[in-house]
Sequence to fold (270 residues):
Amino acid sequence: MRVTVGDTTEPRSFGPITRTDIVLYAGASGDFNPIHHDETFATGAGFPTVFSIGMFQAALLATFATDWLGTENVRRFGVRFKEQVWPGDELTCTGIVTKVEPTDEGELVVVELNCTRQTGGVAIVGTASFLL
Amino acid sequence: MSYEVPIERGKIREFARSAKSTQTAYDRAAAVIPPTFLTTARNFWAPPADDGVLDELGFDLARLLHGEEEFEFFGALPSAGEVLHAHTRLGDRWEKEGKRGGVMKFARLVTEFRDGAGALVAEQRTTLVETARPPKVS
Fold:
């Protein structure tokens, strides 16, 4: 695969995010903070309902990025959490190549990643490196 | 203190599917891990004593936010059947003025994952934030 700075790929949408999606990820990851699945707990804490696990959005963004640049090639993946994600949200993941660096083992490709809500609000931003 | 983290095929597949991935690389006997999979290590394998790091940090849980999360791999990705050894330590700590007043405290937890020979395979960096007041709905 040849990539150059400025390359993008087809954006990918996930959603609408359901409570079941959140619970599936909770089970897979072992994160059982009740704020993410227990309606009574979440409303009792002052939230309108449960909200998603930040690392779930991160995992979706990672799925988008590895579908694009390869499951086995990832060498770094980082995210910063911005806005909460709620049941019913439609998330859209996008990415752009920002750096391509030759190394002894191949080309190190750096991408900037975004996961945006249907409101236009940014849920998470990320960066990742892939060795191609 | 370090603890063992067995990389399990079934958990990789479950994790990949929960993240809506259909890649066959996560279904094979020697499945590689998805990029954020090692987030499961502490949840499933850390002994209770590992919470000592959080006690040492002393952040108020009611004002705690997950700020950033990063994973770095120093070679081929870990795959099913391997056993890693994890150790978490407190990294940098810093403070800054909150937008609506008060002090926001930041701390980084660093978890190293090593193979049986002691070589560093992966590093996880978690940035935690103690906000000046409890988080609000965005």
In short: Chain B is about 15% helix and 40% strand. The mean pLDDT of chain B is 92.
